[in-house]
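Raw record, unedited: Checkpoint protein
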Amino acid sequence: MKFRAKIVDTACLNHFTRVSNMIAKLAKTCTLRISPDKLNFILSDRVANGGVSMWCELEQENFFSEFQMEGVSAENNEIYLELTSENLSRALKTAQNARALKIKLTNKHFPCLTVSIELLSVSSSSRVVTHDIPVKVIPRKLWKDLQEPTVPDADVSIYLPVLKTMKSVVEKMKNISNHLIIEANLNGELNLKIETELVCVTTHFKDLGNPPLGLGREHIMELSHLLLHCGGKVNLLDVRSWSVGLRASSFLICKT
């Protein structure tokens, strides 16, 4: 197995860092799936036990200037790694204003993701900061438990309001209740509601618009949607516009 990749674009590096930070807030460990054209971050906790299931997909050509990998075999050209989410997030925090970032699968007495960050110094010369993140290689027989979840077709599809506004509302609501009720209809109306024994608070958004349901899941993905229901913990990616299809679901799906 081999894997190495490089990011040189600042915007791509910042976006990759935000994705890593979001995942670190959701779970202690995650699975990184590496394939020839995509990276996937996967969480597969049991929702019934209060966990979060997530499928985060990154098109490698949108992030990396260099990308090389060889999977476990020619027939199964993929790599599955288990890692501590916070370790990757902490390593990427040192990449602010970096000239380049390199990620490589290495073996230093144990499997590692080696993250090398090229930084500029005051004298305009560069220095390299290296982080070795321990990983566990997941055997082929366990891959079947880490596949993309099947999400049913939505009953309602709605454009969401400005993300910063919505995030501000939800962060205030979570100080009152651990559970958030999301309501939407085909008239472009969205309600965020919390209910406790002492208080009921609802925030109303109107005239949001409804993407045609017939366009399906692929169209919603192209609009960079993010759906999260995880017992009051909410994290939002910084994207310009997004839409969401609502149905009884407990998955976080992010494609970019």
